[in-house]
Structure formats: structure tokens, C-alpha cells
Design brief:
The structure is a single chain. The protein folds into four domains: 135 residues, no CATH class; 201 residues, OB fold (Dihydrolipoamide Acetyltransferase, E2P) (Beta Barrel), CATH 2.40.50; 320 residues, no CATH class; 117 residues, OB fold (Dihydrolipoamide Acetyltransferase, E2P). The chain has 27 helices and 39 strands. α18 crosses α19, α18 crosses α26 and α20 runs antiparallel to α22. The longest helix has 35 residues. The radius of gyration is 31 Å and the shape is globular. It starts with 10 loop residues before the first strand and ends in a 28-residue tail after the last helix. One of its GO terms (biological process) is rRNA catabolic process. This is DIS3-like exonuclease 1. Its cofactor is Mg(2+). It is found in: Cytoplasm.
């Protein structure tokens, strides 16, 4: 076959089989077929190719492709006309053959023949106008079919690269890497007859064992601080229902892990009770030791071993090549290299490459191909280079890869679906569309309150007095679904991304900027389409009398920042200069407009206090998180790390959003009881509160965790007037103990499991941020479908089946967790960069006040309020020396021993000097950066004085940290409770069962801002204030 210049070809790719290597091109005349049976499908296509692939695999439903779906072939096209789409649907019916069959020679031959027939059919279907290229590693198929049909070419993968992509160096290197890795793996299997690990049990035995209760199924979670030693399996599925276990299962050591990798779904066999071990309670620095000292482990817990893997959740891994010295110690074979993953939880990976020396200073992406029982390490291959170690862009790229985040720009065909809007040709409201909507532009004072610099303004608020004297509260949300049609290319891409990803210095949007920062952003002074929820409230009690859901046309009057709105709420009108919309007005008009705005903000706050008080009576919790904003200068260098200060206006906006989400959840679940998307927050497991209860007892507080209301009341009482940080830390521990809030389909679980433990609401969803959350887009479509019911409107496109919605919820939950991890990791990256550029010995910014919140056998865990940092501070170093502090003077390392009790730890030197540190003690720490070639840098704390560190910032933080909930909200809550008790005493009739249930909820409430962050120690969630 003659060589062809790909730049002169228009190529479409028909991809057949499940290949570990799939090249796709992005044009539309020539058809390529790729066949490599027996390997896991990994899709490398662009966004549009992916959307087409989904359509064909699921016969047009657009459902996501699961990682382990066994599909023999699929079709991917870029620019599809209606006619070519119908061609795809016909072609998709020709052949589907399971991958397992391809591993047998007879079925492999049959498989190749059928795929060739499919290629020939498609060539004939296109009337011979489109040459077809079938790529396969089956040499028999190449010989037999290579010249059988004119216009259908059958070639090897190497021939394919040589002919079509001769100048694509990276692809050739990748192909050579895969081939070399496969050859060495086959050679190793033949030479190494010894077993490093036991073989995994067959699937049928695993399934039978799970059903009988002999084996247990769950997801493997490796302890990143003891990656060589500890992993835990959290039970799931059928097997967990037949066991009385109430805790995770410890998998102790690499042998017991049996080649399972973090994130895999595994099957575990419990060990005899006398072989159970305890989890490590000592501080550690990700050392490679394979055993822990006996005195550093806790009480024995259920311990097991992995006997099989149900699902391998392998992904791309960021790795670092060994240094020159490490390479020499590994051996003389330069082609076989052990690379170290960026993630501590992933084992070293053996790859074959000739570029090891050249790539020693770079972050590199690799993939795992296999892990044989005869090998200590998994085998993989090199994929691509990300950037230099320590370089900001390279480190950000590593974070994105580790969290499987797509940062590619939106494709041309997606952008072609966007409306036109430019300075010369601005977008305008359609007169036809305006007639279909409730026009609020001249009747409502609408404004937004957002963080400084916010561009994607997806919500706005309004409040006004009705002619009958009652109030009308309005929450107005950008009508994204007007611009993003179901199953459009933009919709499929938004579904794949699922959320906007916020990093410390940038964001990756879920939707194109023309929507997220312009047409769907509720900016002031411009007309925008919205979906509004309007409540009529009784003027004094604020009880809901009527609610209305409408597509509306609005014009926001003001785009306020939180600080400005709070100043107006406090009566400080000096900030009027910060309100751009008032600048051009004369003094009289300005004062009139300002008075209207101040009244609206005050009235919204009054309403929010009462709404919050009602939830408080049902057990709503006010929990604590640590929020840090990275402040950059004009050159994007790190200027400061600023803890976010809580404002009452934060709660005002959050309560309005929570109210809207709650009412929308009620509406869509009533209309679509089996296919509505809601958000549940399960009650936490009681054992997760152990540390919270123990720490509270150190201050004499008792924490009742039996219900959300009991927990909320206990946390309110656990207040030390002399040290507000104590309550802050206790609430943070309570947050850490919480389960994650998750999206779910109402048809997938019973209604008694719908409730949101954190918010103390029976039904809840996400409706208020469709610009940055795909779940909200689905909810908008459901709400519009509910509103159109009984009319002539067609609602079928807005409804997803329960099965597909359940699958979509899993995908969105997974992407949300990835977004949280990426945000946390990027914040940690900038924290390390901030302190790395400063001298720890001389720069006063590297010394701060810290509060002890946990005691370990060899040190303490410390919270640094100034920077929102949590970290370990050792009291015993690697040389065995212990810390010695002379009064309030500096600390030194001396020979001695440590003694740990429940609430304190004592260091005693051989000379008899001793120092005792207790829970919630204030100490002075030095903040250091622990560097690493292979992993992300981390913060390290060093105790320098056994006394608080006093600065002006510390005193200010100490005074402001007590504002964990508005005192006014507490007063309203207490007043409402007293009124309710008086009403109950006067009531003669017995409260019915429904009201009784309403007054006693099923679990505690988590402040909306933090409901998704459970385990994050540092996180800038400025953009998530209304989540």
C-alpha cells in the first residue's frame, strides 16, 4: 500500500475490537478499522469521536461506556450528516462478539472474518467512494484478506503507522514501547517459574463465595501514609449484607494485597481472628518499610487477604524515572526501568524504554499492561511526557492526569452549536422566546452576590412586597438548558466533564466560555434567560403560602461582592463606591436606589435566618472546614495564603440556594418518582465519631452522635470561651467523620433513604449551578418536563430512564470526587511553592501558632489557623532522639523516651527533663517544605516552642474565629423553638405521625458549603459557597 500524507487526506476512523492502543484521526473521507482482539478498550479519540462512539454502542441512547464493557467493535465518526448517522446505526447491528472468544484460535479467525465482512459491507454501503483500512495484528487475516476486495486494505499496526503517520514520532515510540513490553513480559513468564503471588481465583468461584458469605467484596483503598504496609477494603454489594462486620477490612502487607492496585474492586477472604492486626497509629513519612513496630499499632481489626479482582480500575499514572545513581543500582539493563508513581498508593511500575536517561528530570505518563503472579511489580509502557519536575505547568498537568481530568479545548463542532455573541454582534433576546417567558425585568429588583472576580454568575436573588402585604422571595438560575440541547455535542461533552474544575490559579469549564462567562452568566444590566423559583411568604412568619416554577426573562440590577453586601447589611454605606452600577447616577437617585438595595439585602437575611432556624429545629449541623485562598500578584507569583473569613451574607445566599434546591427536589420527585435525580447524604457510621468524642472529652465536653439533632446541640455546647479554635476543630472533626453526599436516581433506592443527613431535609437536589454542574442541567430538564406535563409540550427528551440515570449519577459522583482532589492538590502545591521560596530560619512568615488536635505515639497533629494548614509535628526523630523544650524557650533533640496517653504525650530526656503536650494546646511551629523528586512536595511542621506564637494576625484570627454561626440565627432558632413549645402545650389533638416524623429527622445536617468536602484538610471552595 503506497504511503499517504495524512495532511492531504480526509480520514474517518471505524474502530473495531477492544484495543489497548487506538489512534483516531479527525477528518471524513477515508475509513480506518483498528483490530487488536483480547485487550482492554482504551479510547483515545477526541470529544466528538467519543460522543459518536457512545451513540452507536448504546444504539443511540448516548449512555456512557463503562470501563469493562466487553464490546467487539464500535464506530467513531467526527462530522456526521443525518445520512451517515443512519449508516452507523445499520453498521452497528452487524457484529458484536465478546473479547474472550477472540483468545481461542477458532473464534479469533471467525472474529477477524466477521470484522472484515463488516468493513467490506461498509465500503460497499458507501458505494466504493470511501477507502477502508482494517488494522490488525492477526497475520493470517492480513494474508487472507489483504487483496480480496479492492478499496479495502488489511495491514498491520506498524504498517499503518509507517504509511499514514510516518512523521508522528511520539506514536512510533509509543508503539515500540508497547511491543517491547509485551515481548519482555512473555519472556519473563517463560523464564520465571517461581510465584511471587498466589493466583487469583476464577470468577465463578469468587461469585459463589460472595453469595455464600465466605468472601467479601469491596474497593481497595491504600493508606497513602503507609502505602507499602496498609490498605483497607470497604465492603459493598451482596457480600457485605451477610456479615456482621461494622468496619473496614485491613489488608496488611503487599503479599496480602496480591497485585491489587488502589481503586480496584477486590474479593477478600478474612484471616483467622488470631491473625488480625491493628492499624498504624504512629506518624510516618511514606517510608518504604514493610513492617511496623508492634507498639505503633492500634487494637486488632478484621484483617484479610485479596483472593481475586472483580474490576481493575487502572488509569494513566504520572511517574518519575530513577535518578542516575538509582538507575545504576537497578542494574545494567537500561531498557527495563522501575519508575516511581507520583501517587504513593501505586506500586512501582516496570517499563521498557530507551529514553530513561533523557527523561530523568521529567514527569511522565505511563499505563499498566499487566501484573503477572511471577513478577514483583506490574508491567507497563511509556505514553508521553508532561513537563519538568518542579515546573508549575508540569505539576498542574500531573494533577490533571492523576485525576483523569480533560483540559482540552472545546472542539470546533461543539463551538458551532454556540450562539453568536461579539462586541460587533452582541446576542439579543429572541422576541418569540420572550413571549414564552415570565418577564421580570421591570417588576423585580434582582441582584447577585458572588466572590470577587466571579465570572460564571449562575444565580441571582430578589425579594419584594406584594400588593396583599406578603413577601415574594425569588431565586433565579441561569437557563443553561435553553442553549444546551439534550444529546447535542456540547451536552455530551458537558456530561463527560460533569463539573467545572477549580484549581488554585485557574479553572477548566464544563461549558464553553461564551455560555459560562457570558450568555448564561447573570451579569448586571443585561437581559438573560433564567429558570426562577418564586415563593409567596407570609409577611411575619415567613411561612410558604405558594410556590411557582417558571422560565423567566430577567435583568440583574447589581453584581455585588460578598464583602460589599455584608458591609451594606451592617449599615456601612461607605462601600457605595464599590458598586459600579450606582456610579453614574445623581446623588438623589443613588440614595434612593441604595435604600432599596439595603432593604432587599436585610429582608433576604431575615428570611434566611428563619429558614435556617427551621432546619436547626430538625437537626441541621453547622460544621467546619478549612478554606484557603491563594492570592497571586500581577505576575501570578504567590503573594499570600489567606484564610476565608465567614460572613453572615454567606449564610444568607446559601440558605436561599438550599431552599430552592429543596423545593425543586420535592417537585421533580413527585412528578417522576422513579427517575428523578436527587442528592442523598447517608448517616455516618458511629465508629467514625470515636476520635471526635475522645477529643471533646479532653475539654470536658460530651458529644452525643446518636442523631443529627443531638450532634448539632452537642457541638453548640462544646464551646470554650477562652479559645474559640476548640469549637472550630471539633466541628472540623465532625465534618471528617461524615459520609460523602451523593447523587442518585429515585428509582434506585427506597424513599426512606432519600434524606439528606447533613442538611436535615427529606429531599434535596442540586438546581442552582447549571453552569458548572451537569447534575443541575439534568434537574433543570426534569423541572421543565414537570412544568410541561399536561400541556402540548414534548417532554421525552428531558427524561432519562432509571437505569441510565443511575449510571450517570455514578459518573458524576466520580468526577466530583476528582474535582475535589484536584482542587485540594493544587492548593497544596501553591502552599508549598509559597513556603519553598522563603527561608524557614529567618522569614517570620514561616513561624506560626499551631493547635494540637490529635495525639500519636511519636508526635502530634497540628492545625495552623493562619494558613489553614494541618500537618504532623514529630516529637521523636529518625535517630531516636526526643524533643526537649526549656519553658517557653526553643526546643532541642535529646536522648530520651515518649509516653502517650489518651489526651497527652510526654517527652522525657535521659537527664530527667520532660515536656507534656496536650490536646488543644497552642504551640509555636516552623513551616517547612519536604521536597521529593518522585512525588508532590508536602508541608512539614517543626515544633520550636512549647508556647503560643502571638502576632497581630493571630489575635485577629482568634477574635474572628468564633463566628461559626450568626448569633442572630441562634436567637431566631431559640425564639422559634419556644414558640413551638408553647403551641404544642396549647394543642389538644395528638400530633399525627407525619408531623411527628417531620420534627424528628433521620440524621444530622451538614452546612451546604462543606457537604462535598468530608476529608479535605485544606481546600479553597470559594466558588462552591452555594453548593
Amino acid at each position: 500500500m503506497p504511503k499517504k500524507n495524512p495532511d492531504q487526506l480526509k480520514v474517518t476512523t471505524l474502530s473495531l475490537s477492544t484495543s489497548s492502543l487506538l489512534f483516531t484521526s479527525f477528518h471524513s473521507e477515508e475509513l480506518h478499522i483498528v483490530l487488536q482482539p483480547g485487550h482492554k478498550w482504551i479510547y483515545w479519540g477526541g470529544n466528538i469521536l467519543f460522543s459518536s462512539l457512545l451513540v452507536v454502542l448504546k444504539n443511540g441512547t448516548g449512555t456512557f461506556l463503562q470501563k469493562n464493557v466487553s464490546v467487539a467493535w464500535c464506530i467513531s465518526l467526527k462530522s456526521l450528516s443525518v445520512k451517515s448517522k443512519s449508516h452507523l446505526y445499520e453498521a452497528s447491528k452487524i457484529l458484536q462478539v465478546a473479547n474472550e472468544l477472540c483468545q481461542k484460535s477458532y473464534f479469533k479467525l471467525c472474529f477477524s472474518r466477521n470484522i472484515y465482512n463488516a468493513a467490506a459491507w461498509y465500503h460497499n454501503h458507501c458505494l466504493g467512494q470511501m477507502p477502508v483500512v482494517m488494522v490488525t495484528e492477526d497475520e493470517d487475516a492480513i494474508r487472507q484478506y489483504g487483496n480480496e476486495t479492492e478499496g479495502v486494505f488489511v495491514i498491520s499496526f506498524k504498517n499503518y503507522l509507517d504509511n499514514f503517520w510516518p512523521d508522528l514520532k511520539a506514536a512510533h515510540e509509543l508503539f515500540d514501547s508497547i511491543v517491547q513490553a509485551r515481548r519482555e513480559r512473555e519472556s519473563e513468564s517463560q523464564e520465571n517459574h517461581g510465584k511471587e503471588y498466589p493466583e487469583h481465583l476464577p470468577v465463578e468461584i469468587l461469585e459463589a463465595g460472595i453469595k455464600s458469605g465466605r468472601y467479601l467484596q469491596g474497593t481497595l483503598n491504600v493508606n497513602k501514609h503507609r502505602a507499602q504496609l496498609e490498605a483497607f477494603v470497604r465492603l459493598q454489594g451482596f457480600g457485605s449484607k451477610n456479615t456482621e462486620l461494622q468496619s473496614d477490612i485491613l489488608i496488611y502487607g503487599a503479599k496480602a494485597r496480591n497485585r491489587a492496585i488502589h481503586g480496584d474492586v477486590v474479593v477478600v477472604e478474612l484471616l483467622p481472628v488470631h491473625e488480625w492486626k491493628g492499624r498504624t497509629v504512629a506518624l510516618c513519612e511514606n517510608e518504604t518499610e514493610d513492617k511496623a513496630p508492634a507498639d505503633t499499632t492500634g487494637d486488632p481489626m478484621p484483617t484479610g487477604k485479596v483472593v481475586g479482582i472483580i474490576q481493575k480500575n487502572w488509569r494513566d499514572y504520572v511517574v518519575t524515572f530513577p535518578s542516575k545513581e538509582e538507575s545504576q543500582s537497578q542494574g545494567r539493563n537500561a531498557q527495563k526501568v522501575l519508575v516511581t508513581p507520583w501517587d504513593y498508593r501505586i506500586p512501582k511500575i516496570r517499563i521498557s524504554t530507551q529514553q530513561a536517561e533523557a527523561l530523568q528530570e521529567y514527569r511522565v505518563v505511563v499505563r499498566i499492561d499487566s501484573w503477572e503472579s511471577t513478577s514483583l511489580y506490574p508491567n507497563g509502557h511509556f505514553v508521553r511526557v508532561l513537563g519538568r519536575i518542579g515546573d508549575l505547568e508540569g505539576e498542574i498537568a500531573a494533577i490533571l492526569v492523576e485525576n483523569s481530568i480533560c483540559a482540552a479545548p472545546f472542539s470546533e463542532i461543539q463551538m458551532s452549536e454556540m450562539p453568536v455573541s461579539s462586541p460587533k454582534n452582541p446576542w439579543k433576546v429572541s422576541p418569540e422566546e420572550a413571549k414564552k417567558r415570565l418577564d421580570l425585568r421591570d417588576t423585580h429588583l434582582i441582584f447577585s452576590i458572588d466572590p470577587k472576580g466571579c465570572e460564571d454568575v449562575d444565580d441571582a436573588l430578589s425579594v419584594r412586597t406584594l400588593p396583599n402585604g406578603n413577601l415574594e422571595l425569588g431565586v433565579h438560575i441561569a437557563d443553561v438548558t435553553h442553549f444546551v440541547a439534550a444529546n447535542s455535542y456540547t451536552d455530551v461533552e458537558a456530561r463527560a466533564r460533569a463539573t467545572t474544575y477549580y484549581l488554585a490559579d485557574r479553572r477548566y469549564d464544563m461549558l464553553p466560555a461564551v455560555l459560562s462567562a457570558d450568555l448564561c452568566s447573570l451579569l448586571s444590566g443585561v437581559d438573560r434567560y433564567a429558570v426562577s423559583v418564586l415563593w409567596e411568604l407570609e409577611k411575619e412568619s415567613f411561612e410558604t403560602l405558594r410556590v411557582q416554577y417558571s422560565r423567566t426573562l430577567i435583568r440583574s440590577a447589581y453584581k455585588l461582592e460578598y464583602e460589599t453586601a455584608q458591609a451594606l447589611l451592617d449599615g456601612d454605606t461607605s462601600v457605595v463606591g464599590d458598586i459600579v452600577e450606582l456610579q453614574s447616577l445623581d446623588e438623589g437617585t443613588r440614595q434612593k436606589k441604595l435604600a432599596e438595595l439595603v432593604w432587599a439585602i436585610s429582608k433576604l437575611t431575615d428570611i434566611a435566618r428563619h429558614v435556617r432556624a427551621k432546619r436547626d429545629r430538625c437537626g441541621a449541623l453547622e460544621l467546619e472546614g478549612i478554606e484557603i485562598r491563594v492570592q497571586l500578584d500581577d505576575r501570578r507569583n504567590i503573594h499570600d495564603l489567606i484564610p476565608k473569613q465567614p460572613l453572615e451574607v454567606h449564610e444568607t445566599v446559601a440558605e436561599c440556594m438550599i431552599l430552592a434546591n429543596h423545593w425543586v427536589a420535592k417537585r421533580i420527585s413527585e412528578d417522576f418518582p422513579h427517575q428523578a435525580l436527587l442528592r442523598q447524604h447517608p448517616p455516618p457510621r458511629q465508629e467514625f465519631f470515636t476520635e471526635l468524642r475522645e477529643c471533646a472529652s479532653a475539654k470536658g465536653f460530651s458529644i452525643d452522635t446518636r442523631s443529627n439533632k443531638a450532634l448539632a446541640e452537642s457541638l453548640d455546647r462544646a464551646n470554650d470561651p477562652s479559645d474559640p479554635i476548640v469549637n472550630k476543630l471539633l466541628r472540623s472533626m465532625a465534618t471528617h467523620a461524615m459520609s460523602n453526599a451523593l447523587y442518585f436516581s429515585t428509582g434506585s433506592c427506597p424513599e426512606e433513604q432519600f434524606h439528606h443527613y447533613g442538611l436535615a431535609l427529606e429531599k434535596y437536589t442540586h438546581f442552582t449551578s447549571p453552569i458548572r454542574r451537569y447534575a443541575d442541567i439534568i434537574v433543570h430538564r426534569l423541572l421543565m418536563a414537570a412544568s410541561l406535563r399536561g400541556t402540548t409540550g414534548d417532554v421525552k427528551d428531558n427524561i432519562i430512564s432509571n437505569k441510565d440515570l443511575e449510571e450517570l449519577c455514578r459518573h458524576i459522583n466520580n468526577r466530583n470526587r476528582a474535582a475535589q482532589r484536584a482542587q485540594k492538590q493544587s492548593t497544596e502545591l501553591f502552599q508549598c511553592m509559597y513556603f519553598r521560596d522563603r527561608s524557614a530560619e529567618s522569614d517570620e512568615r514561616c513561624v506560626a501558632d499551631g493547635v494540637i488536635y490529635s495525639i500519636r505515639t511519636n508526635g502530634v497533629l497540628v492545625f495552623v489557623p493562619r494558613y489553614g494548614i494541618k500537618g504532623a509535628a514529630y516529637m521523636k526523630n529518625k535517630e531516636g532522639l526526643v524533643i526537649s523544650c526549656q519553658g517557653a524557650g526553643s526546643c532541642q533533640w535529646k536522648p530520651g523516651s515518649l509516653h502517650r496517653s489518651q489526651h497527652k504525650i510526654t517527652s522525657t530526656t535521659t537527664t530527667g527533663d520532660s515536656v507534656t503536650l496536650s490536646l488543644f494546646d497552642h504551640i509555636t511551629v516552623r513551616i517547612l517544605v519536604q521536597s521529593s523528586r518522585c512525588h508532590a512536595e508536602s508541608i512539614k511542621l517543626e515544633i520550636i516552642r512549647n508556647a503560643p506564637h502571638h502576632t497581630a494576625d493571630t489575635e485577629a484570627a482568634h477574635r474572628s474565629s468564633h463566628v461559626v454561626r450568626s448569633d442572630l440565627v441562634k436567637e431566631v432558632s431559640q425564639y422559634a423553638e419556644e414558640a413551638q413549645r408553647a403551641q404544642e402545650r396549647a394543642r389538644v389533638e395528638v400530633m399525627d405521625e407525619e408531623s411527628r416524623e417531620f420534627c424528628q429527622t433521620k440524621g444530622p445536617s451538614l452546612y451546604q458549603l462543606l457537604e462535598e468536602i468530608r476529608e479535605l484538610a485544606l481546600l479553597d471552595v470559594t466558588e462552591d459557597i452555594r453548593t
